[in-house]
């Protein structure tokens, strides 16, 4: 007996379906995925990173902002992610056909930095989103694994809380790991004064 494959949704079908039920959903390769409810520690890390980045782009008078809820649509248009933190380049939004009505961007020029704070679905951040953000050409992607949930091949054995800064070089992400009191090096914000431990402390 053959089993019918589930129907894959387009991005437009996903947006039309999206319910107003206070839950968060993403579209992963045409499949709707309900995101796990965030913990308090997860939210505190998001708040801390948002504050640090806001202070920096405000100091530099850059045309950036951090949206409360917005989607990044991947080039294949089969996925739509709602990152934990990402910077919008407000100067490029006139070139984004979906932003005004659907709060969605699809161009790398609109996203200087995207950050995923790792939770129980850590494989999405380390594999799927890593691949899709890389393909899209987003210049800087952070994986904030404050609770050391990722695989040992990434964060060591025994596992250690780690921040990865992935810089796009010749179309591929180069991952740099930061642990403990190591100062984080951000290509977008070279003068950012921030250590990995400060981010980990924010979760407490």
TrEMBL record:
Keyword Hydrolase attributed? yes
Keyword set, alphabetical order: Endonuclease, Hydrolase, Nuclease
Q: Which InterPro entries match?
A: Nuclease_put_TT1808, Restrct_endonuc-II-like, Uma2
Q: Name one Pfam family in it.
A: Uma2
A single GO molecular-function term is: endonuclease activity
Native source organism of the sequence: Nostoc sphaeroides CCNUC1
Putative restriction endonuclease domain span: 12-196
Database matches in CDD domains: DUF820-like
UniProt name for this protein? Uma2 family endonuclease
Q: Does the keyword Nuclease apply?
A: yes
